[in-house]
């Protein structure tokens, strides 16, 4: 379900024909539907009705400020993975007290930023990080709200690059380590144990892995209660998949019902960290045909969007539907690879696609580009990044202007001033050990 539909033979975003947007803002262009964004958030929120819960949008999927503001206005919380993302949430009017901070590699300055801002919780992913958080909190005279991200060792049955809860993935801590670390944390006056967190992967298309991960983590919660450690919230992470092609992921209602049932015995707050499911099908990428060509037996449609705009096909072998913005009836289809201008053979948006015969200037719509699209874009080949537009009814908001050539060289100089480093011994300092644990 989305608001990108054919009307009078032309693909529209809500009520605006995509060619009008392409004309006004140029291509490649990301177009997002406000109505779709809002509906997705509300459907997921409603799926947990009756349970004390907070939907924390995982902003790495699409961190445009206008999108964050849209969710913030619905009362959303946010899941972040860097200080940069915290900055974005605050810029967009999000509340720090609804922010969950995840990630395996938080720096001291990021931990300090989060504590100063007053985030809801830091999801700690290792013993070493727990020690750092304690040190930074003490330095600031604060108590750090923490949860441990546990690794329930569940196979989410997704692409290996987006499976994050396997026993040997870099994320989270094992159940055994968690028990020990919670005990340490509960005794540390600079730490306040708030909850438990997990996140087993992305683009998961069945409920089984989620409920199994919850079940395993509830055993830990029970064991902790036995030791007098109260777990106030249970964060089930994100990862619910969407339909790109012929996947049949559970409807959010089904997912919500499964989560509710799995957590029936849990009496605290439930947190969700959805990313893709909220924004993926709320966005498309509009691109223009530059050339068509044939090499050997293979046809190519060269378009002005590239892996620098949408890296998922190159990165994960992901499939995105590609269709003409103005479909031609009864056209004999041509099977072609849709490729970008970047100097890499992995620079394709789609392979072996049946498309009508195309001419330079024709517009194509790449579907399901709202998640991990712009957010993963780059300036490789010194390409300006695309503009982003948010559509609501017959109105469009330019949520990010197209980059300019000046943007591309900002911070660089052809002849930077040299800085001399005088000879001096390098001071080596261990960062990993907490001084308080050193025995005198
Ligand atoms: C990426 C991520 C999410 C969101 O994943 P989706 O598959 O987009 O829902 C949630 N939580 C954490 C910790 C993440 O790293």
TrEMBL record:
It is an enzyme of class 4 (lyase). Pathway: Amino-acid biosynthesis; L-lysine biosynthesis via DAP pathway; L-lysine from DL-2,6-diaminopimelate: step 1/1. The modification N6-(pyridoxal phosphate)lysine is found at residue 60. The keyword Zinc does not apply. InterPro entries: Ala_racemase/Decarboxylase_C, DAP_deCOOHase_LysA, De-COase2_N, Orn/DAP/Arg_de-COase, PLP-binding_barrel. Pyridoxal 5'-phosphate binds at residues 239, 273-276, 372. It catalyses: meso-2,6-diaminopimelate + H(+) = L-lysine + CO2. Its EC number is 4.1.1.20. Keywords: Amino-acid biosynthesis, Decarboxylase, Lyase, Lysine biosynthesis, Pyridoxal phosphate. Substrate binds at residues 276, 312, 316, 344, 372. Residues 407-440 are annotated as: Disordered. Its cofactor is pyridoxal 5'-phosphate. Residues 35-279 form the Orn/DAP/Arg decarboxylase 2 N-terminal domain. It comes from the Bacteria. SUPFAM superfamilies: Alanine racemase C-terminal domain-like, PLP-binding barrel. It holds the Pfam family Orn_Arg_deC_N. Specifically catalyzes the decarboxylation of meso-diaminopimelate (meso-DAP) to L-lysine. Belongs to the Orn/Lys/Arg decarboxylase class-II family. LysA subfamily. Homodimer. This is Diaminopimelate decarboxylase.
């Amino acid at each position: 379900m989305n608001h990108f539909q054919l009307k009078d033979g032309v693909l529209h975003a809500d009520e605006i024909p995509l060619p009008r947007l392409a004309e006004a803002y140029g291509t490649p262009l990301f177009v997002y539907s406000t109505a779709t964004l809002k509906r997705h958030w509300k459907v997921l929120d409603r799926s947990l009705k009756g349970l004390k819960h907070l939907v924390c949008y995982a902003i790495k999927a699409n961190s445009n400020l206008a999108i964050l503001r849209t969710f913030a206005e619905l009362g959303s919380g946010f899941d972040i993975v860097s200080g940069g993302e915290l900055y974005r949430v605050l810029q967009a009017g999000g509340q720090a007290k609804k922010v969950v901070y995840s990630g395996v590699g938080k720096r001291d300055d990021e931990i300090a930023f989060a504590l100063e801002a007053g985030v809801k919780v830091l999801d700690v992913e290792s013993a070493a990080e727990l020690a750092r958080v304690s040190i930074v909190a003490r330095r600031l005279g604060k108590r750090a709200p923490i949860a441990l991200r546990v690794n329930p060792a569940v196979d989410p049955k997704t692409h290996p690059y987006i499976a994050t809860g396997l026993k040997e993935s870099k994320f989270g801590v094992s159940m055994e380590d968690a028990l020990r670390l919670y005990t340490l944390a509960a005794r540390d006056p600079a730490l306040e144990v708030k909850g438990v967190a997990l996140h087993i992967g992305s683009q998961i298309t069945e409920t089984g892995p989620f409920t199994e991960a919850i079940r395993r983590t509830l055993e830990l919660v029970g064991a902790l209660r036995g030791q007098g450690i109260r777990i106030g919230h249970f964060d089930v992470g994100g990862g619910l998949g969407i339909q790109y092609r012929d996947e049949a992921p559970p409807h959010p209602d089904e997912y919500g019902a499964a989560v509710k049932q799995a957590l029936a015995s849990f009496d605290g707050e439930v947190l969700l960290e959805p990313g893709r499911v909220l924004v993926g099908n709320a966005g498309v990428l509009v691109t223009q045909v530059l050339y068509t060509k044939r090499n050997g037996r293979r046809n190519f449609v060269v378009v002005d969007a590239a892996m620098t705009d949408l890296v998922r096909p190159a990165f994960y072998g992901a499939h995105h539907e590609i269709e003409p913005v103005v479909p031609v009836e009864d056209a004999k289809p041509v099977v072609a690879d849709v490729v970008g201008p970047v100097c890499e053979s992995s620079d394709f948006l789609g392979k072996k696609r049946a498309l009508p015969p195309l001419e330079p200037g024709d517009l194509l719509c790449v579907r399901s580009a709202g998640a991990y699209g712009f957010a993963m874009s780059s300036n490789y080949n010194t390409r300006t990044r695309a503009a982003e537009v948010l559509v609501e009814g017959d109105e469009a908001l330019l949520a990010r202007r197209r980059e300019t050539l000046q943007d591309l060289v900002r911070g660089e100089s052809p002849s930077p001033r040299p800085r001399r480093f005088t000879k001096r011994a390098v001071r080596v300092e261990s960062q990993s050990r907490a001084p308080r644990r050193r025995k005198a």
